[in-house]
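worker-3 :: picked DUF302 domain-containing protein
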Amino acid sequence: MAIPFDPHELDPEEYGETRTTLETDHESAIERVREVCTDAGFGVPVEFSPSELLNEKVDADRDPYYVLGACNPRMADRALDATDGRIGGLFPCNMIVREVEPGTQEVYHVSIMKIARLLGLPVDDDEMDAIIDDTGEMVDAVFAELDDGA
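worker-3 :: tokens ->
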């Protein structure tokens, strides 16, 4: 299957890629990201550990990897309207915490709002632009706080 653009030519800014490194153990990093997301206005209604699941089910021997499904209900509601509900296929906004090595965790995020824009999901471009700006400020605040405490 060919995609209509070369993903290697995309600037990470176009899909809202953000990352930082925390020098701490895995569990402490998860707690820190959860706390900072909550302080920035995100709830975390979904959490799971793909590494635990895969290690158990297929003996994958994966290093710790955790997904915090962050969500701001007001933004989610706006995004559903701006995309005729299709953005729900990308929900929630995930914050990934993965152990790079013992004592070093990477926190990673991509903007589902920007990805929705790239996929042509919005039916209300102006509202989607406003949502991208608003959620971008929230995510920037999360990563600024993580960087300050790193």
